[in-house]
Specification:
The chain is mostly beta strands. The protein is 4% helix and 56% strand. The protein contains one helix and 33 strands. The strands form seven sheets. The chain has a six-stranded antiparallel beta barrel with strand order 24-25-30-29-28-26. Strand 8 and strand 9 form a beta hairpin. The chain is globular. The relative contact order is 0.14.
Length: 396
């Protein structure tokens, strides 16, 4: 009996120990039946996060704060949902937030909605319908002044169009402007000189298109995406470093295999590289690379056959472009430079079935979030950062 009690005590202690990553403590924000990372952003005071939760009362949108002094309780936001999904969270200035999501309207048609959250997670405005027609996908970026640029696809299924709107620093949307026809899957990246790089997919000819977002669009073809019958495009995302622009295409093949394909081109050039499957090979004999981020030691790497999936690049322009991705059995951050992968950091064991997310604070600490599936059918919504090593309440 004494031995049994000791075993139970040891097992209990093991279960109670918080999980850790290469960066240190992993903070579990909550649990939810969602496949992708919780929406989040960081500022000097800490992390603001949100996700779609559910319980006996039904579906709801949840949010939580985490700072150096501790974490708040989960707040159920008073935003009446139908079946909300694809949440995104952006800074609105002075600690406030813009929350965007897709949901059904009163006519059960999917639209884009927004809410303006105060620093203590009160809903100051919302839910606000941003659009007045069916929306399928959207991309958004903060403008640096508390406002957002949003591009969404909508209209007829056979001929989707892309539209642009601004959401001001108080959460009020502008009138929509039509940008393109026969276009879907928008993606955005902004360079430090405020140039907005805009990508989309043309389903009719399976081409990827690029333009600088300005009053008059001048589009060029990036390449053709090889999608066979039964293959599914899961999303396209864009990023950049100091010299190159990148486009990542996440697809699921008819076999069920998740893949990422990418292309790049110099910011001072016009030629895009051949669209290539994203994979790496670590160089264990080379010295670790210095990335300029506070994320610890990074192994040297180059293109190889350890293939990536579910890839999300960091928003912002730096010497290296970090991208969060699944490689083999690990959630990794791969660092790109000059159009190619240059380093890899295996952060935590994971088996992703949706997108991770990545953010950086003003001191260049990286924050990585993901949904870790559990056998219960729910997922642990995880968040880790080397910054957490100084947060006493997260220590074992």
């Amino acid at each position: 009996m004494l031995l049994f009690a000791l075993v139970v005590l040891l097992v209990g202690c093991t279960i109670a120990s918080p999980p850790t990553s290469t960066w240190g403590p992993i903070f579990t924000l909550g649990q939810a039946e969602q496949t992708s990372a919780p929406a989040f952003w960081v500022d000097p005071t800490g992390v603001t996060a949100s996700w779609v939760g559910a319980d006996e009362a039904g579906v709801h949108q949840d949010a939580r704060l985490a700072t150096v002094s501790g974490a708040s309780e989960t707040t159920v936001l008073p935003l009446p949902p139908v079946h909300p999904y694809n949440q995104r969270l952006f800074p609105a200035g002075e600690g406030s937030s813009h929350l965007l999501w897709l949901d059904a309207d009163a006519n059960f048609e999917t639209q884009l909605f927004a809410a303006y959250l105060t620093p203590d997670l009160q809903v100051a405005r919302g839910p606000v319908p941003v659009t007045d027609q069916v929306v399928r996908r959207y991309a958004a970026l903060p403008n640096g002044d508390g406002s957002l640029t949003v591009i969404w696809s909508g209209g007829l299924l056979a001929e989707p169009g892309l539209y642009m709107q601004q959401i001001d620093d108080a959460g009020r949307p502008s009138t929509a402007t039509r940008l393109a026809t026969g276009a879907d899957w928008p993606a955005l990246a902004r360079s430090n000189d405020s140039v907005m790089h805009f990508f989309w997919y043309q389903p009719a000819d399976r081409t990827l298109q690029y333009a600088i977002l300005q009053e008059s669009l001048s589009a060029s073809t990036v390449g053709t995406l090889d999608l066979q019958p039964g293959d599914r495009l899961q999303g396209i995302t864009a990023g950049l470093d100091n010299t190159h622009l990148y486009l990542f295409c996440n697809v699921t093949r008819v076999s069920g295999e998740a893949q990422t394909w990418y292309t790049s081109h110099p910011l001072d050039g016009e030629q895009w590289s051949t669209i290539t499957r994203f994979g790496i090979a670590e160089d264990q004999d080379a010295e670790p690379i210095q990335t300029g981020f506070n994320s610890g030691q990074v192994a040297a790497a180059q293109a190889g056959a350890a293939y990536a999936s579910w890839t999300t690049p960091l928003i912002g322009q730096f010497e290296f472009l970090p991208v969060a991705t699944q490689i083999e059995d690990d959630l990794s951050v791969v660092y790109f430079q000059a159009g190619e992968p240059r380093g890899n950091q295996r952060v935590a064991p994971a088996q992703l079935i949706g997108f991770p997310d990545l953010a950086v604070d003003q001191d260049r600490y990286l924050y990585l979030a993901w949904a870790q599936p559990e056998v219960s059918g729910r997922a642990n919504l995880q968040l880790t950062s080397l910054r957490f090593s100084a947060w006493a309440w997260l220590q074992p």
